[in-house]
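Task: encode each sequence below as structure tokens.

Item 1
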Amino acid sequence: MTATHLHTALHLAATGVPVLPLRAGKVPFGNCRPCTRNACGGRPNMKAPGPCACPQPCHGWAAATTALRSPQWARAWREAAAVAYHPGGAGLTIVDLDNADAIAWARKALPTTQTVATTRGEHWIYRGTMPSANGVRPGVDIKSLMAYARWLGPGTGTMSGLPDVVRALIVKEPGTVRATTRTITVPAPAGSGECRHRTPAYLERGITMAEQRITEAREAVHATVYRTFLAVLSTHGWCGCLTDAHIVRLFTAAQAKGESPRHCADAWTNARTALGM
């Protein structure tokens, strides 16, 4: 069966789907000894920005990759009990329906899409990404960014684009979004260096490109956010032209990829520290 799991994983990776092995119990392999209890700093599993240097299949969903032939992964695949993948890394969102009642609700409330049978219910798969969330309604979980799902086959039906009705499932009340915005309290650098912005369009183009870089990240979202913040600060952060409004735009893009306000603030602070600001 292990050979079958690896064959499946290689096929998925070849199509651009980041995969990871699951051990008995259908859970990811634990962190290796150097990374035990996040001794490595937790990178890249949501504790700090930047890539972890460990080449082992550590850090749960963040271990998902399309590069499977490194020797460090060999043992994990020999012991694999199942194959999982990172839906968000593949540009997908799964509506995980755990029981018959949840399936009945989905058939009434959601657009039809590609469907995969599970041991207890169904996965409805849509094209597009969003933050993951558990228990958005009875028997319904969302698996997309910063989550993993078992690979149970291609399923049936034609995949549809991610509808607004699914995105709305994670919004509990109008105040939720406003509260997220209020948590962004990181000030823009005051700046005292030479201004390199010949026109306002130069800065605007830089912020737009940074938002796009974060939005298009398919893997290593934490590392991408940190590196993007670092690039923005190194180019636009010395002269004082960078405003709080620009930072809100960057944080908003990062949170749309699943980053929390706290992680955004930490990444921004670490980037400023790295540059000596």
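Item 2
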Amino acid sequence: MTKIPYSVLDLAIVTEGDSLRDAIQKSRELAVHVEEWGYTRFWMAEHHNMENIASSATSILLGYVAEATKSLRIGSGGVMLPNHSPLIIAEQFGTLATIYPGRIDLGLGRAPGTDQTTASAIRENRIQEVHKFPQNVKLLQTYLSSENKKSKVRAIPGEGTDIPLWILGSSTDSAYLAAELGLPYVFASHFAPQQFAPAIRIYREHFKPSDQLDKPFLMPCVNVILADTDEQAEYLSTSMKQMMMGIVTGERKPMPPPVDDIEKVWSPHQKMAVQQMLTYSFIGSPETVKKQISQFIEKTGSDEVMIASYIYDKDERLKSYRLFSDMMNEL
């Protein structure tokens, strides 16, 4: 199998007992390490009003991470465009691209990244902006292009940076849009696997070449937890499972430490819901996961894979990312 790039999705997860500052600092330290281990990108995602996620001011955090690294591509996975004016995003990411040329990616989504009450507090007319998402993606492209220099509305910095845009999604709607615009496609299979197969088929079948991309480029995101043994990895994964259980119950608390018996923590209904969300999770020793991830990449035809590793202990988390890099280099 042909080797493919591998990258990181990070949410600046707040673990139980840590402060927001601790979470942000750990993200920066993680970026420094994964750059050394050969990862291609380090992306952070916009979320709001969640005690367990510190990445609400995404562009600011990306600058903090970019400053600590040298060659790693830094980007959003993603910015929820209906929450913002396209001009403001063009200026923010244009500023990043001006400071760190050739290293910035801009992944765009249309979900709120929060609950509906908070979404309304972010932007009162957000629902209207959701319907304008395709037009606003094109407008953002215009602001970032050199051709916009004669326009009355310009992104400075930003104009002429031509930052690569990516479409993020968890449904077939996003697949049609990424294909129509000829943009690379990132699927949120790490928590929303239901429409993954039809979405990537639609994306490839309907793809139209663009100035940015001449053929489809797929990067699914999956969960990965690696340890020396399958048993240790399963134990570490109970923190992620408890965090996902919080999504099911609506309790978004800091990520708890692992437990010896997850069956004592969740109900049968919660277990079923979490297991469905975590369909594309690869948990175990490198020997176990290597075969699974190889089959996944081959079956989906992925051009790059992005991983999220929700692990309570900082050192175990770093070890998981290092083991994954070693494993990918052996494929």
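Check on item 2: The CA atoms of residues 119 and 207 lie 31 Å apart. The chain has a mean pLDDT of 96.
End of task.
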